[in-house]
Amino acid sequence: MTNIKFISFSKALLALCLILIFFTGTRAQEIDLLIKGGHVIDPKNQINSKMDVAIANGKIYQVAPNISAQKAKKVVDATGLYVTPGLIDMHVHAFQGNEPDAYIANGFTSLPPDGFTFRAGVTTVVDAGSSGWKNFNQFKKQTIDRSQTRVLALINIVGLGMASRFEEQNTDDMNPVQTAYMINRLFPDIIVGIKASHYWGDFTAVDRAVEAGKLANVPVMVDFGEHQPPLSIEDLFMKHLRPGDMFTHTFSYGPANRETVVDENLKVKPFIFEAQKRGIIFDVGHGGGAFSWRQAVPAMQQGFLPNVISTDLHADSMNGGMKDLCNVMSKFLNMGMSLQDVIVRTTVNPANAVKRPEFGNLSVGAEADVTVLNLRKGDFGFMDIRRTKLKGTQKLEAEMTVRAGKIVWDLNGISAPDWETELQKK
Fold first, then answer.
1. How large a percentage of the chain has pLDDT more than 70?
2. Residue-level pLDDT at 283
3. How many CB atoms are closer than 10 A to CB 375?
4. What average pLDDT does this structure show over 238-254?
5. Nearest Cα to 348, choosing from 129, 52, 86?
6. Burial of 411 (C-beta count, 10 Å sphere; 0-12/13-18/19+)
């Protein structure tokens, strides 16, 4: 009888040990991806130091020094690299389509996001008014729902969006009530603001966009630069826009039809500083024709910094002076902006500007969008839209991009095992 009890006890003890071993082993690899040894810059959480970033179940699991590699299923060595929240490009055009006569709305000028985002460290984009309320559903089905990149949108005050310059002049198609309805009733999670752009007349497009913004409680972005004679941007900032509204193409230079922020004596106009203090958000929106060194360099030297760094990505900008978000970020580094301030303007600032504070950070529990950047040193050249060059000594490259916990870009295979090592395992 004693032997039977001992055997039963031994079996129970063995079973308990096996259970403990199983659960201990499970806990030992509770992290799906561990990015070790990088310099973490997370402005929202005031982190700017060497840390490890752990990801589990598509979420940020832990950000701390010296997280044990034994707890991770996969470890990436980020020594010598910078680890940031997934970058946000607040000004792109992604309503790509094949409508023959279309400009940006369902046209060839727009680009499918996934082909151009991850390789630049971008995990979230904001489409800047490509569609209006009449064709937003098509944009959603055609692009937003099919993209691995997170795609948010500003909806155009013009119902047909940016179909062509001529459709954008149609004031009868600028419907604040219908525009606000699309946001409030149908797509409040996706549509984050309203766009007014390319209008040749007075302040009508801006005022109707602001009216829609009030109805939907969202900000407005204005592309303000095709008026002859040029309209006053001081009036735009102080009389028509609200705090939190956005002015894009900040460093554009086209004095014939667009008032500039820097005057012909290369001095920042005093009301620009006042407008920024008032809460106007200044967005770079580089684009194919909207970024000039003669505006950006004097502005930076005189202490006027943009709130958001963005690309205005489309087919006419990507192969010119703009290239991608890392290239635009590098321009500001070489004009004297600190890396910390550059990351602020491509993570937390754009997230706050479109009222999505849950993005652009590495907070525990946040969706795991992470960018690993390499800051290269050397002799580099950077072009503006007029194809003039600024020489620089540092350049950012996206080494690895993680979207919702999955590695979606790995420039040099830092997350991959050596093929010969894997061959030996087999």
1. 93
2. 98
3. 16
4. 97
5. 86
6. middle
**Residue 214 identity:** K
| 312 conformational bin, left if phi > 0, alpha if psi -120 to 50, beta if neither | left
Structure tokens at 219: 């900000």
pLDDT at 24: 46
Which pLDDT tens digit goes with each residue over 255-311? 778 899 999 999 999 999 999 999 999 999 999 999 999 999 999 999 999 999 999
Which secondary-structure segment (H or E) carries 12?
helix 2-28
Q: What are the beta bridge partners of residue 410? A: 400
CA atoms within 13 A on the CB side of 62: 16
User: CB–CB of 161/229 below 8 Å?
Assistant: no
**Local structure of 195: helix, strand or coil:** strand
Let me know if 366 is exposed, middle or buried by CB neighbors in 10 A (0-12, 13-18, 19+): middle
Beta-carbon count within 10 A of 386 CB: 13
Note whether 225 and 158 are within 8 A (CB).
Answer: no
Residue 27: pLDDT band with limits 50, 70, 90: low
Q: Do 142 and 97 form a contact (C-beta atoms < 8 A)?
A: yes
Q: What is the pLDDT of residue 122?
A: 99
Residue 11, pLDDT score: 52
Count Cβ neighbours within 10 Å for each residue of 115-151 and write b for 16 or more, e otherwise: ebbbbbbbbbbbbbbbbbbbbbeebbebbbeebebbb
- Do 106 and 127 form a contact (C-beta atoms < 8 A)? no
pLDDT at 354: 98
Distances (CA, A) of 117 to 122, 123, 216, 295, 313: 5, 7, 29, 27, 10
Per-chain mean pLDDT for the chain: 93
Q: Enumerate residues 6+ apart whose C-beta is below 8 A from 351.
A: 88, 357, 358, 359, 360, 361
For the chain, give every domain's residue range: 87-361+376-392
Instruction: Provide the CATH topology of domain 87-361+376-392.
Output: TIM Barrel (3.20.20)
Instruction: Let me know: does 125 contact 150? Beta carbons within 8 Å.
Output: yes
pLDDT at 255: 74
Residue 14 has pLDDT above 70, yes or no: no
Q: Which helix (H) or strand (E) holds 234?
A: helix 233-235
Cis link prior to 229 (omega < 30° from 0)? Answer: yes
The DSSP string of 120-137 is GTEEEEEEESS--TTTHH
Measuring CA to CA, which residue among 251, 254, 309 is closest to residue 121? 309
